[in-house]
Amino acid sequence: MTKHQHSTLRRKIAMTSFLLLGILLSMMVGSDAFVMGRNHAELFRVAAETASASSTSQSGENMNDPNEIVARRIVVEGDVQGGYYRSCVLNEAGRFRRLTGTMSPPDDSKTAEIYVEGKRKMVDGFVRWCKRSNIGLSQVVKVTEITEADPTGLYDSFYCKTR
């Protein structure tokens, strides 16, 4: 084996090891922790936040149940008037996390309200996704308010309203 072949093999082994570590970490933390393109520090930050959140919420019995149905109202501000952000929210909440609810159309201001309900772990993951705020392209969006709500059960899917 030549020196070049040996270094190529070592690189392939290192990349495979990193990929397996990411998959294992995502299985321990949750499905939204492993996203291609994140750097090492962000992966470990997400794992640490999840671990601290689960340890602080152990005071209540229902706080640990990931399958409990919960609801959140999330107010976002920024570039929410274009269809790209609504499409991303629809995909993330409705298709990827199987949440129900709605995203209200923004009025003339730059704020919109997202109402989601579903399993606790899926709703919490969606809230973390919203807080990340790096949707892509040149979208600048930030979460201004998150409130707990009582699940209504009125929605059978996730809807993004248009005017």
TrEMBL record:
Superkingdom of the organism of origin: Eukaryota
Pfam families: Acylphosphatase
Signal peptide region: 1-33
Alphabetic keyword roster: Signal
InterPro entries per record: Acylphosphatase-like_dom (IPR001792)
Start and end residues of each Acylphosphatase-like domain: 71-162
Family: Belongs to the acylphosphatase family.
UniProt protein name: Acylphosphatase
Organism: Nitzschia inconspicua
Source species taxonomy: Eukaryota, Sar, Stramenopiles, Ochrophyta, Bacillariophyta
